[in-house]
């Protein structure tokens, strides 16, 4: 048998693509293959079990790609509505938490069940615990999909196997070898949305969370900034704002640069007001410990770190001189951490890189020179920030590839 469409990967991109293909061409034979035992395994873990499916806010900083503007040919300021409408058509209402869109149940399982039930109702054949090993193209233009259980022929393939991140949930770096026979180019992948390793000794602050403006800096230039929560762990910085800087930070490291993260721990107090506050404290509470002076503003472990790293000798506030106060204020405003490493795929929420978008058609994600071969989701070199952007991309790109593959079958039938 020659299938009309084979979809590789049962994540949000692959399941959406299979559904849209079959809805567009109801008589088409569509098969979905996933190496996990169950479809949508990663989805259960998303958004802390709540599955953040989209976001109403969109600007250029929300997606990274070597081909900077490519994602915005698909994702627009209306895309969250398309994602919500799609899930509404599957019977799932949405909940908008200040722009972050979740299923109204706040349960990721709602999304998985809605997708898997629809696949079943549409009669889409799926095969789980089956890993695709390679894809080749025959002389007649059809594709040969080799798996660890055998092989299939098909006229079209939608590739949505995700990336290397989160291997326990289905991620694998083998996905980047699937197209070796077809000479498809990949942008080199690396962990993304992950913690960053810093050179400084920060173990004494382990477990502390602080609200700050987080800046990604390199050679004195600011590359990105975001206000949010930073978490200190032994040797690492993490938290959403740090995760969001990680893509660009690792890109800089890969080009031999030395990026650093700068924290502004008291963004709402000006430099002058901060120095005034310190001086007043020293006048009124001069006999109190220097740590106490800082602990009025930041966590006590951060206060201890500042005093230790600046080598402050005075134990009481009254003993601080003007230079001490200036350097303390400077550190509260520009606490610098030199980044010399990053988390592994095991603890990353995504992998950056993937299929080089310069080879993809900007209307349907079809690979140039390979009629009927599409890529979608995280497999493509498009990585979103935290906040629902990756699932939104997976669903939107899956829709587009699925609809296009379905339409091709319909057109060929007529
Ligand atoms: C802990 C965690 C939390 C996250 N939270 C969010 C969130 O709240 N919002 C958000 O937008 N994003 C979130 N993400 C990112 C998001 O989950 C992914 O970007 C998204 O799932 C990608 O969808 P996909 O369909 O492209 O790939 P995946 O979801 O990775 O699915 C790919 C599927 O392909 C299968 N596969 C791989 N290789 C093969 C092969 N050779 N043969 C057959 N099958 C194969 C895998 O088993 C997998 O099921 C989170 C990620 C993690 C790890």
TrEMBL record:
Coiled coil: none annotated. InterPro entries: BaiN-like, BaiN-like_dom_sf, FAD/NAD-bd_sf, RsdA/BaiN/AoA(So)-like_dom, RsdA/BaiN/AoA(So)_Rossmann. Residues 4-403 form the RsdA/BaiN/AoA(So)-like Rossmann fold-like domain. Keywords: FAD, Flavoprotein. Residues 190-349 form the RsdA/BaiN/AoA(So)-like insert domain. The keyword Cytoplasm does not apply. Gene3D superfamilies: FAD/NAD(P)-binding domain, HI0933 insert domain-like, Translation factors. Its cofactor is FAD. This is Aminoacetone oxidase family FAD-binding enzyme.
């Amino acid at each position: 048998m020659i299938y009309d469409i084979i979809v590789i990967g049962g994540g949000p991109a692959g399941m959406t693509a299979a559904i849209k293909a079959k809805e567009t061409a109801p008589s088409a034979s569509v098969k979905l293959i996933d190496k996990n035992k169950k479809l949508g395994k990663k989805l259960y873990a998303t958004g802390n079990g709540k599955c953040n499916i989209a976001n109403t806010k969109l600007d250029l900083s929300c997606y990274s790609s070597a081909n900077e503007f490519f994602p915005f040919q698909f994702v627009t300021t209306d895309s969250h509505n398309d994602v919500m409408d799609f899930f509404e058509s599957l019977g799932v209402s949405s909940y908008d938490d200040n722009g972050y869109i979740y299923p109204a149940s706040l349960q990721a399982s709602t999304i998985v069940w809605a997708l898997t039930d629809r696949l079943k109702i549409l009669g889409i054949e799926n095969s789980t615990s089956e890993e695709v090993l390679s894809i080749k193209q025959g002389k007649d233009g059809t594709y040969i999909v080799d798996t660890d259980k055998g092989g299939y022929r098909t006229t079209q393939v939608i590739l949505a196997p995700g990336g290397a991140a989160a291997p326990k949930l289905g991620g694998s770096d083998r996905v980047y070898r699937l197209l070796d026979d077809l000479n498809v180019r990949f942008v080199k992948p690396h962990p993304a949305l992950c913690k960053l390793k810093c050179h400084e000794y920060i173990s004494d602050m382990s477990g502390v969370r602080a609200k700050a403006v987080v800046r990604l800096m390199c050679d004195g230039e600011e590359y990105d900034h975001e206000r949010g929560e930073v978490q200190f762990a032994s040797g690492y910085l993490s938290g959403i704002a740090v995760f969001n800087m990680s893509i660009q930070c690792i890109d800089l490291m890969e080009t031999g640069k030395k990026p650093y993260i700068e924290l502004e721990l008291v963004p709402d107090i000006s430099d002058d007001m901060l120095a005034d506050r310190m001086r007043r404290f020293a006048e009124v509470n001069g006999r109190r410990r220097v740590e106490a002076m800082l602990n009025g503003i930041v966590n006590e472990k951060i206060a201890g770190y500042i005093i230790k790293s600046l080598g402050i000798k005075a134990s009481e506030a009254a003993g601080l001189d003007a230079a001490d106060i200036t350097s303390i204020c400077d550190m509260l405003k520009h606490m610098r951490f030199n980044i010399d490493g990053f988390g592994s795929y095991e603890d990353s929420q995504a992998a950056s890189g993937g299929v080089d978008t310069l080879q993809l058609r900007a209307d349907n994600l079809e690979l140039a020179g390979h009629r009927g071969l599409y890529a979608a989701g995280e497999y493509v070199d498009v990585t979103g920030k935290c906040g629902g952007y990756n699932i939104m991309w997976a669903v939107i790109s899956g829709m587009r590839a699925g609809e296009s593959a379905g339409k091709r079958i319909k057109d060929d039938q007529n």
